[in-house]
Amino acid sequence: ACTGKEKVDEKEPAKTDDKDKDTEVEEEEEEPAEEEAVGVDFPLDTTNSEAAIEDGEMIYALVSSDPFEGTLNKVFYSGAPDAEVMQFFDEDLLAVDGDYLITSDGAASFELSEDNKTITLSIKDGVNWHDGEPVKASDLLYAYELLGHPDYTGNRYTFTISNVEGMPAYHDGTADTISGIVVSEDEKTISITYDVATPSVMSGIWSAPVPRHYVGDVTTGDVTIDDILASNTIRTEPIGFGPYKVSKIVPGESVLYERYDEYWRGKPGLKSVVLKVVAPGSVVGALEKGEIDLASVPVDQYNVLKEVQNIELLGQVDTAYTYIGFKLGKWDAEKKVNVMDPNALLADKRVRQAMWHAMDNEVIGEKMYHGLRFPATTLIIPVFDSFHDADNPGRPYDPEKAKALLDEAGWVDVDGDGIRENAEGEPVVLNFASMEGGDVAEPIANWYIQNWEDVGIKVQLYEGRLHEFNAFYDLIETDEPGIDIYQGAWGTGTDPDPEGLYGDTASYNYTRFVSEKNSELLAAGTSEDAFDADYRKGIYNEWQELMVEEVPVAPTVYRYELFGVNKRLVNYTIDAANLDNKYPWKWGVSQADPVK
Amino acid sequence: MSLLKVNDLKVHFPIRGGFFKTVVDQVRAVDGISFEIEPGETYGLVGESGCGKTTTGRAIIGLNNITEGEVLFEGTDLAQLSGRKKRAQSRDIQMIFQDPYSSLNVRKRVLDIVAEPLRNYERMSPKEELDKVQALIERVGLGPEAVYKYPHQFSGGQRQRIGIARALTLNPKLIIADEPVSALDVSVQAQVLNFMQDIQKEFNLSYLFISHDLGVVQHLCNRIGIMYKGRLVEEGTADEIYSTPQHLYTKRLISAIPEMDPAKRLEKTHLRQAIDDEYRTDYDNYFDDEGRLFDLKKISDTHSVAML
Amino acid sequence: MLIFILRRILIMIPQLLLLSLVIFVLAKAMPGDAVTGAFMGNPDVTPERMEEIREKYGLNDPWYEQYGAWIQKFVKGDMGKSYVHNQPVTQLLAGKLGNTVLLAFCTLIVSYLIAIPLGIIAGRWTDSWFDKLIVGYNYFSIATPIFIFALLMLFFFSFHLGWFPFGNSVDIRYDVGSWDYFVSKAKHLVLPTLSGAILGTAGTIQYLRNDIIDTKLKDFVKTARAKGVPEGRVYTRHILRNSLLPIAAFLGYEITMLIAGSVFIETIFAYPGLGQLFITSIGGRDFTVVAALVMISGAAVIVGTMLSDIILGIVDPRIRID
Amino acid sequence: MVKSVLEIKNLQTSFRIKDNYYAAVDDVSLTVHENEVLAIVGESGCGKSALALSIMGLHDKKVAKLEGQINFRDQNILNLSPAKLNKIRGKDLGMIFQDPMTALNPLSTIGAQIVEPMKYHLKLSSADMKKRTLELLRRVGIKNENRVFSQYPHELSGGMRQRVVIAIALACDPVLLIADEPTTALDVTIQAQIMDLMKELQTQMKSGIVLITHDLGVVAEMADRVAVMYAGEVVELAEVNELFRKPLHPYTQSLFSSIPSNIKDKGRLHVIEGMVPSLQALDRNGCRFAPRVPWIAESEHENNPKLHEVEPGHFVRCTCYKNFHFRPEESEGDNHVFA
Amino acid sequence: MKADVVTDKNVLIAEAKANNQSFGKTIWREIKNDKMALGALVVFIVILLAAYISPFFLDVKVVTKIDFHKIYLPPSAEHWLGTDKGGRDIFGQLMIGARNSITIGVVITLIAGFLGLTIGLISGYFGGKVDFVIMRILDFLMVLPTLMMIIVFVAIVPKFNVWSFIAIMSVLLWFGKARLIRSKALSEKELDYVNASKTLGTPNWKIMVFEVFPNLSSLVIVNMTLTLANNIGIETGLTFLGFGLPESTPSLGTLISYARTPDVIQNKLWVWLPASLLILVMMLCINFVGQAIKRASDARQRLA
Ligand SMILES: Nc1ncnc2c1ncn2[C@@H]1O[C@H](COP(=O)(O)OP(=O)(O)OP(=O)(O)O)[C@@H](O)[C@H]1O
Ligand SMILES: Nc1ncnc2c1ncn2[C@@H]1O[C@H](COP(=O)(O)OP(=O)(O)OP(=O)(O)O)[C@@H](O)[C@H]1O
Ligand SMILES: [Mg+2]
Ligand SMILES: [Mg+2]
Which domains does chain C have, with CATH numbers? Predict the structure, then answer.
């Protein structure tokens, strides 16, 4: 596949406070590194301790092979590149902590009601849009009005939004207002009431306001949503209340920001910021030449990158994992539930366990990714420190164990061709679907096929090739009968709740795995009780255990993400817990020219 | 009964123009000509370039569509025939082309060229075919090895003779010769002309001989038709045309033949000047009100002129 | 002339309509649609929601109804809305079209600047040392895959020497219209232009060379020499003028070829233009954009050939267009 | 004594064919006098055009090699530098080409093409040049000269174009005009007009003309003296009346008797046997015509035949003319098939 | 004496038979006389042989076996041209890839050539209404932006493999040829040898196939050799853009498109350079041979 196809939107850096939850990740274009990693312990913060100069300028690379789409509004944008553009001039009212849970450190503070159903936000003083207007509570209401608007076609009308009381009625057009949202007289506070209480509110609430006065009001009929979409107020002259204001945009290519002196947290650290799109292949060269100060770098270039003298490399584990899914049933479109098929080829969990044991992910991580990927153990990633069960070893590479499990399951080689027949003694060839995505997808798919063949399971690529993103999901989503195994990847977003991917009514539960225990645990994980973190952790540990036992999917690798930073940068971090520096306003440079 | 009778033949080509490229006018390439050819006779068709000679020939043999009029060959209208009959009839009329280079397919050996009509009309074993072709080739004065050669290995005159051999294969009754010698050098031309005369005697052929070289026409033809702007302006025996031309255009044409006696060249120049003057002054008298040449009118048994 | 243009435009209409139908059907036949492209894999967007959006976009109507609705708008100049960019396609294209046309134009000029002198030299001094070199270069340019060449250009001139920027069309820090802006724009154009131009000369050189060799032998050239025209002038006044004619006539065609062929160059140099947009849009199943781009290319071909005919009609007295 | 304008001495023009040079014009010596039309006749490929192009210096140096002398006004054209040659070409030497369809630049107006030689050779203002051009056009018999001036070649008929070609050749009042088959591509009536025009112009201008043709009719109408060429050599040279009255060389005789209008009774035409040998196959030592008259005994031919002056001004090459007769059984057929 | 004549005759006939120059022979002679073309032909044949014979010695399974312990090994005795990102042998892939690429190029050229030839010939030969209709269709097809259409088709086709690739390309690459052939056929049919055949009673289809076609053959052969080079190249380009053949079908394009990251292009030449050079060499060879054939078809330019 080519760079042009990559679906990047889910690959957002953790620092952007996007509210999306679990999302699909396409394998990005990554090259294996040839030498072994010397140790994959990257710093999270820059080490430059000099003071930032007064009128510095930073050049930020938006690493993408495509231009950014340029819908610069949190309600309407669709791609991650746009989110990166917005981070400099706009922000959410609520800040989040290291666990991605909301705090009151942002431009607004919040309070949760007793019954956990109502959340009240109070906007702090001095929070003003770039045009000088104060940010009002009704601006946040406006965001909800847009999100729920019948004409809204974006992808953010999600559960957290529709869960707001009165939202469905408003969305259907049967109500003019959203009954669950109340704005105070003084436009300083806003309270939002939900139909169902869920801890997801702590990580999922929408708190990005839209400047009603600036983009125009659809509720009064002044403008339509299409007008807004076509309008320069969200394209080339957007405003926000973030640390920098947009001074100029060359659509798709670059943005020039200027310091917004009245930023509510204080005077930002840079006089100006230039953001420009840099193709993944050019990132290293640009960093080395000092053309850019900051870039998320493709891991495949780690090898070259670590030799580059004028930059620092920051890295951390990404909010995503790759997995192998076993097709176990079908989606019942009528009832909107997943239905397991007891006759599925891989209905026996021992076979699935064996297949997991057979996969040598260690080598992939070390050889191809230079240690920047490592074998995954459970379905809740280590990023969620408090929920990831570090003690659960998953199913490490162990071909002997795999063989034993297969023997146990009755999959033995009857006819002596080195390939096992199934319990009924029939020869089996499993069809494996995998997505195109960078240069590594193909070798990895074939590597697994070889791994499986080593333990005696014959697997072949579905249709003999990898599938392009759209085609792949067409196949998986429709439960194409020919496919038995597939390789996918999920971005988890910032909410640990796996319900959307593994619930019995979740359409994204592509394996169609259902079990009572599973449903029970998932429900418990988001129940009111789960506002108690320990309780929740217990539940999720149990769930992780269950998934390692049942193996509807076998997670393969967790991944690191890397950032290259010019040594003149100060106060920069990728650490979500570093509440001071994770927002752009403090970022600065210690000298006028980049270190070369 | 005459072998070929052409009756008020018209061939018009559409001129397209205007916004939608519709037919806005017609090129009247041949605009109502009539003549007859008797068996064994050579009929010459003469006129300046673009007057419609070639078109007439092509219309007779069926390469051009006839707009109006009829072409009777041995009494049957060729245009009315169809399918098998037409095929049967059309083997009796053959054509010799002007350009000995383009009229032979350079990618074929002489054998295949000359045998082409045989393969179309007759079933012969390869041996018979080869014999027949070889006989023909020798008849036109080429060595037997010639059948295995390609056209580019021959000179213009030889090529023209191969073309003639091809036309003779089916023993036609009428041969339409469209300027068969104008691309050839004088001495080669003589060769071909002699040869045409020989085979005419031998096979009792009739020729429709199209040319603009009056010397050649005079040498070869019994009767001559003079064409001008798609019409016949004069028709008669070779003698009549050359000794007593009646139509102004004929006179002009004849006066243009270079004088072969250097001593008389001044005379000839003066004659040309005189006819030119006449041509200028009398030109309009030869056309009717619509600007069309008059129909032919007999002035003797064999001689007709297009005059009032 | 006017009639000629009018007629050509009249012919163009059914052609474009047919093209629109073809591309519409094809775009629809691609697996997935814009909604899949945008929302697939986002668990928060339920299948119902996706259906709802499809319904809103009219993606569930029978294709002919969708086509009818789309083409009606299209005729009025509304190319629909990009699903991925959430923006009217016309607006989306505006900037990129300019970039692509500029690039195509510069490439054309530079390739002519290279090709015409070389073609002339090769044609005039056939079989000379120069000629052999030029013919060699020609072979090289035909045989080298453009993307390898472009990549090498990029690595050498940008990465190693640092002479030229890595991508994009201009440095944002300069004000539109200022000298710096102009210089920056030019700097961004150099590599894409050169890569395209250096490999794009083969046709012209070969054509010119052959044509000059042919024209050299024409009778009217002998006439010119017989008039006592000096050799140099024979070339400039008689041979060249005749040989350049077809090149002028190819102009319109070449531009359209360059616009269509911009995909590689734009992708490699991250130059935001139509080619790059096309590839992105195919991936995102943004079929309004795909369709619009195909229509534009189709129209460009038609206009290009028309332009060629008009140019030829103007420069060649033998050809009258009406 | 009439002055000679052109003196060709032992001219040999050879073409390179695969590393060897073969003479297409072999040891030709001719003189053209003022106010005289020298016709050169011969069949296709005998070297007529090669001779004409040699005089004009129009051969491509890479393929053609020229030896001997071409003296034009006491300068040997062969030794002139290109610049000097260009001073003569178009000025004192004019050339008329055979095919009026291709001899004109399709992209220039008629006016521009006639003006062009004046620009290089005459010091005239552009208004004067235009005036002169219009006058020239009138002189070559074009009536609406103002219109023709700004027309393009394709807008004119063949006859008109040939007149334009003539006008170009006459543009700077040449002393010597070389006309390579000026009428061959034209219709009979047009041919007559062009012939008359050339005769008329010649009487006015008093220049020498080299008229190349294969049409004896044209020769009879126009020439003062005639050179007959065969296979690169001049085989007979005589005053026109003399030649037509008493052609001597076998080739000349054959040529005359193969013309239809010379045969009164529709009898058989004379056919020259065999073919013109190609440059490479030509036997250059004996009589070049010998292979085509095989019934003439070898002894009749000369070795390395010379031009003999049989009568004052009448030259014939090779002694074979003396006892020449047509093949007796000739009327029986032209081919060995019947032999 | 008589016998003499007869043998003489036979000798002559035999000689003529031997000397009759078919177009094929002319081409061969032309190539023989051009050292470059001859060399190019030899090289090309060697490449062809290598590509088509090597599979008998190469185990595809072994060549395409992933071995992550052998990633990006530089050339060595074991791996002549080193290994790629999956630890696969480049040399093996090069051989298999060359075969695939050449097969694709040749088959596309043949099919597109056949389509273009047939349709162009019919259109040009019959002229009139047939021509009008075909030309209008062609006019339309010419408007299609080829590269874009190919990409759209590639996106649509579900089972994308060598054959569907060939089908897509062939369907979209014949228009130009049809036009070329048509215009040539149009002028060819005006020539008298066609008229002659008509008057001799030869049916139209025979004239088309046996008279006109052979006269277009030189044009066709020249055009096909020159487009062969292009067609091999176009696969490479599409693969680079991500619309080419899957990696499981190695082609030269696959190998070259590995050269997408700075690291590979700068430091791992062995991965992409051999394939690039192979393409370059093949293109040059085909072009040299093509030029010789072109000269052979044009008597004016012939060297021999
Ligand atoms: N296919 C055609 N379409 C349109 N016009 C044609 C066509 N064929 C011939 N003409 C026109 O018909 C007229 C007669 O042409 P034709 O070829 O019969 O003349 P010709 O007497 O044979 O002339 P030439 O001596 O030059 O061969 C010419 O004006 C020619 O332009
Ligand atoms: N450039 C050339 N290279 C090689 N041979 C040539 C060249 N030009 C002419 N010849 C040969 O020289 C000989 C004389 O040619 P030339 O053109 O002078 O004949 P010609 O008498 O003018 O014939 P025509 O009446 O056909 O014009 C011919 O055999 C011809 O093939
Ligand atoms: Mg004619
Ligand atoms: Mg000549």
Answer: 92-315 (1.10.3720.10)
